[in-house]
Amino acid sequence: MRLHHVRARRSDEHFPRGEHLAWKIAEVAADPVAVPAETESMVINRIIDNAAVSAASVIRRPPTTARVQALAHPRPTGAKVFGVEGDYSPEWAAWANGVALRELDFHDTFLAADYAHPGDNIPPLMAVAQHLRVSGADLIRGVATAYEIQIALVKGICLHEHKIDHVAHLGPAAAAGLGTMLRLDRDTIYSAIGQALHLTTATRQSRKGLISSWKAFAPAWAGKVAIEAVDRAMRGEPAPAPIWEGEDGVIAWLLAGPEHTYQVPLPEAGEAKRAILESYTKEHSAEYQSQALIDLARRMRTKIGDLDQVASVVLHTSHHTHNVIGTGSNDPQKFDPDASRETLDHSVMYIFAVALQDGTWHHERSYAPERSHRPDTVALWRKISTVEDPEWTRRYHSPDPAQKAFGARAEITLRSGGMIVDEIAVADAHPLGERPFEREQYLAKFTALADGVIGDAEQRRFLSVVANLPRMTAGTLGALNPLVDPSVLDQAPAVPPGIFG
């Protein structure tokens, strides 16, 4: 692994293309290095994981809207839209599948200087692979690259402190992954990366205040943009350059400015792509920084007994957790029983209160309006606050996997004056947690979330096919689309007509 120093450059400064970050990423994408067996296995796990959470969300309103839009774009020998028969334009299939995947905030994550859900790369790559009749091995190669690039950018470049949404790292990663999968040359990949970044930078307001359904649509948009960027680049259309380092580029005006140098770690030529192994999935349908806290609440509730005796709860945690999903955000919506599901998903105070009371977490019941309006929940919820602890912040950013942590110390003060204190470093499902996710857990998550949505025989067919992904031949990847029972789709909300019919 090599650290690349990335900073803004004046237009009159000598800065050859070979030094551009986009070119260095294109070199990684074009490197024909073999995929390690453990990376290959994890790609299969994440495809199973994506199908699981997509099944759970398939008749919710945002995925239904995106699906209706995609179904208005049929195309012979196109791509598959999750759960339904037929072939559709790949960029629209990626759009619909990306929204279904992201809706419940229930798939994989990587946290470092910034945030990422790198599984968001899979829908655009899968759609193009189906449309262009790519082999399973080439899809795996592309996914490995997309994870490698997004995780490298998340390690090296912080977006959120400048209020830029984290999908600005997703667009270039998906473009790079498509380049690998399609075996494109470096020039083409370079142009596609530049276009994808240019068109996927947006503010973090999508994850602030009253959070709307755009939180689910934003990554799907980045994937759709990446497909279109690659298409244009393949036709010879260039991109603004240098896109990160230019005088009027992303670093100079949207990030830390001309005086700052970022350090982005990228594999050397011939180095295997293993970054997917550094990412982690979710046991609970909630923002990742609350995963460990749900597990902590489940553990602490037995020590408390009568929750009416709780006077206050203070969660000592990292800067990120405090400021994004804690009271450091200064979002009153995070205490509002009428807040959207997306907002409650980003309120660790709400999440900790419900987990304390229920001892469990459910992707629908835990967010239901009747749940958020329960008087005893509201009372407990408003007793909870967060504070930043420098040690948790240090561990959050530690490059040492054994030290890196996304947890907190909970101090619960009782009305009697007594105190109950406990802490947790990582979620139980984390590779270093009490119950790490392996293939068995991914399969269990799929069968649990697909129950009542995808028939038993269809579940078995899909799982058998995806296990054989490395050996799937060109033109067979449409089989990776598990079909949803039509009677389930009939329960989806009606979507008013729009431009696309």
Outline the fold blueprint.
Blueprint: E1 2-7, H1 21-30, H2 37-57, H3 61-71, E2 74-79, H4 90-102, E3 110-111, E4 115-116, H5 122-131, H6 136-156, H7 167-181, H8 186-199, H9 214-234, H10 250-253, E5 261-266, H11 291-304, E6 310-317, H12 319-324, H13 341-345, H14 348-358, H15 369-372, H16 375-381, E7 384-388, H17 390-397, E8 408-414, E9 419-424, H18 439-450, H19 456-467, H20 486-489
Parallel strand pairs: 6-7
Antiparallel strand pairs: 1-5, 3-4, 6-8, 8-9
How would you portray this structure in words?
With 501 residues, the protein is an alpha+beta fold. Helices cover 45% and strands 10% of the residues. It contains 20 helices and nine strands. The strands form three sheets. The chain has a four-stranded mixed β-sheet with strand order 7-6-8-9. Strands 1-5 form a two-stranded antiparallel ribbon. β8 (408-414) and β9 form a beta hairpin. The longest helix has 21 residues, at 37-57.
Question: Could you give a short description of this structure?
Answer:
By secondary structure, the protein is α+β, with helices and mostly antiparallel strands. Helix content is 45%, strand content 10%.
